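Risk register update: the risk that structure generation would not scale has been downgraded. Supporting records follow, first protein first.
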Amino acid sequence: MSVQPITSTSTDQCATEESAARTAGQRVLRIEAAALVQLADKLDDSFDRAVEILSGTRGRVVVTGIGKSGHVARKIAATLASTGTQAFFVHASEASHGDLGMVARDDTVVALSNSGGTAELADIVAYAKRFKLPLIAITSRAPSPLADQADVVLLLPDAAEACPMGLAPTTSTTLMLALGDALAVALLERRGFSAEQFRVFHPGGALGRRLVKVSDIMHGGEALPLVPPATRMADALLVMTAKSFGCVGICDDDGRLVGIITDGDLRRHMAGDLLDRIAADIMTREPRTIRPNALAAEALAVMNMSQRPFTSLFVTDDDGRPVGIINVHDCLRAGIA
């Protein structure tokens, strides 16, 4: 079988097709980006009222929708839940078949519908009105059946869908998704949601690893290799060997860390009388330390930052007293590298 050579004509055709695809992609992104700018400019006191209602919700935030709006609603609920707002998704159709039992008296309902006339939302909207639950609508149409019943309407701008037929939900769902992010972040900032709280909700994956604190993985109590300054080096070495951190800390009478002896210190002071000398003679004074509430990634950086990297780092309180010790291997086991 002979192989047909690639002609300049076929090459030009491929390039033209790629160019057309890229042009379509750029057009979609620019249409949606322009719509997002419209949405940002359009935010008014309705957004403030929505945040006020969500912030004051004693129960949970129930986010609902169907079709593409339902997929966006599920993501909004997940974002709210991960940033300190108790929230969950209820499928609009399933709500009519028993899932309304998941909605409690102190909850707030957030309903998504581009047209505002989604028939499947009727039951959950009626339920919210019956039990006087706050109802926030995210829609492109007002007046509409949904907007007319809502306590707060977050109205999307009249922006064309990026689909060339104007049919597939594209721009509208992008706007809904972005508006959900805006609500979640506004609530996060209103509550003063911290990185530590964020880590509680994200214990797995890269986010969880990045937010692990020194106190989460340090060794404390009897595991600490500590001796007084007057300890003979023969005894200091026994402690250093037994604790297996490759170092021993030297504490004064007040329990403050005043020095450290590492393998490197031993090599630098290697002599026939080493074992008869005391720890104060051999120790490196003012050793580097870390705070218990520092991120483990910071501890790893401290261990690697000097010209002579070290493998263990004492953790001290505000008075300079050792409360723990962290090893480079502890960081690696925690997935911090």
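Supporting record for the second protein:
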Amino acid sequence: MSRTTRHTKSPEQRRAEAEALHAGIADQVQALRSSEAWRRFLDFSRSFHSYSLNNVLLILGQRPTATAVAGFRQWQGKGRQVRKGEKSLKIFGYSTKKITEEDPKTGEEVEKRLPRFPILSVFDIAQTDLIDGQEDHSTVAHRLTGTDDLDILATVSDYLTASGWSVTREQLDGHTNGYATNHGHRVVIEAALSPAQAAKTIIHEAAHITLGHLDAPERDYREHRGAMECEAESVAYVLAGLLGLDTSAYSIGYIATWSDKDTDTHGVSEEVHGTATRVLAAVHTLTEALEPTENATPIVAMQPQ
């Protein structure tokens, strides 16, 4: 590795600090969920139509990164404007048409309603911009600003590259910060992110790899995505904290949002504390790999549970 992030603490001190950082996540999430900002976020989230499974599959087939979709006028009502030139996503709507026909048995005219499935156009939130003067209640995870003075991005990039992964900065959809995929062993980070946010994001993606999330079957990933996102972001928060970067402005809101979505969640404490062993093991694996040694330990993915 050409760059390293140096530590002055002993392994025992780092472990104690990691445990303390992780233990504080649940309390911060609970505090956020008691705030007015969280209530406004929930109001915004609940204002969206609940789509059928078929329409969800249609949406994801056209835009796999879609998170919240609505029609052109609906977005305007939510204080956002669809950008000029954006291609709409096509789904099926539902309505009925009233007709009058003769009952063959009685000869009387009866009214019937026939189902109709018109094609509708919707847009993902990533295809919209906030209208001037409107407040943004679409997220409680606020992207970090500032620098990456410790070269965390470069250090983790070198580690991933040494472990057989490619790392690139690319322009994504404006809302996705990054992603990792086993196809080609690629890690992609949004080109427009601030140095601090990019540093946090690459730790998040390295955590997904280390935790074995990318090796989980697609069905398991979709069913337990909330738990996996909570784990990866918890690793990012703790490891970044050990390295001297406070990511709470983003990480706490991100964890709060995803722990609220997972189908297996039984409260924040269960979601966060229940994965402590896996999170801390991943933190220690990555911390040791980023130590200033001649050869970094290659990534060995933990088996997802």
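The CA atoms of residues 177 and 190 lie 5 Å apart. On this basis the risk owner (M.S.) recommends closing the item.
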